[in-house]
Design a protein that fits this description.
Helix content of chain A is about 40%, strand content about 15%. Chain A is an alpha/beta fold. A 5-stranded mixed β-sheet of chain A has the order 2-1-3-4-5. In chain A, a hairpin with a 5-residue loop joins strand 1 (about 25-30) and strand 2. The mean pLDDT of chain A is about 95. At the A-B interface, helix 2, helix 3 and helix 4 of A face helix 2, helix 3 and helix 4 of B.
Amino acid sequence: MVDSPMLRALELAKQAALAREVPVGAVIVSSDGAVICEAHNRIVELKDPTAHAEILAIREAGEILGSERLMGCHLYVTLEPCTMCAGAISLARLARVYFGCLDPKGGGVEHGACFFDQPTCHHKPDVYGGLYEEESAQLLKDFFADKRG
Amino acid sequence: MVDSPMLRALELAKQAALAREVPVGAVIVSSDGAVICEAHNRIVELKDPTAHAEILAIREAGEILGSERLMGCHLYVTLEPCTMCAGAISLARLARVYFGCLDPKGGGVEHGACFFDQPTCHHKPDVYGGLYEEESAQLLKDFFADKRG
């Protein structure tokens, strides 16, 4: 059941790369697995430093569901969320987060702020890392190799 | 020079309370003190858990300035930014953050994640806390007393 949204998130990450955005994709599904919305990074396009895939998906899900609390929903994202996104995930009350590869430089879940383990985090989702880890990481490697090339 | 944007942020926080949003206001100014944009919390109105005053102001400033990097700009906000907003402030490359009262329960600058002090934080703004601290705190106290009353 977790494969299909994660494969879709990988597709979205590829679309991001084609648009010259850092390739990260995200999908939000309800607790019964129905896709609610999807997004990829659009930072450069929107001139918006907050336009990470997770933030765009959370905002759209709130609009679709008519609530700022996405109770019971699950987020799939190809990269470990950064600190900003970890904060947003907690505020959105997402029940679960599935992510692809780790981000030692910028991650906020398993690295640095480790936000979900902080006393200032008032909702901690269940976290499942490492889904399609190699595929997620390869997209990022290819993107940055191209940029430098 | 710092009084005027902070007084305006307090006015915006009062407007938030009238709209039944948690009273937090924010103003972004350029390095020469010109106001670029302003916002208050709109979480309930927009059904968006990320619609904190800081995030809305950062998004609007990026649009106005035509860049996802708000180099040299200063943010004024009536409450210590949460972890999500601290992350966004860093990603936006804001040069300075002035804030009102501390937020021991949810702050991400002086509490919990203390994000600007993390190795995963790649841009650390100068931070000045405690501006109009009592006024900022009183607005929040009144709002939550009203809600409980």
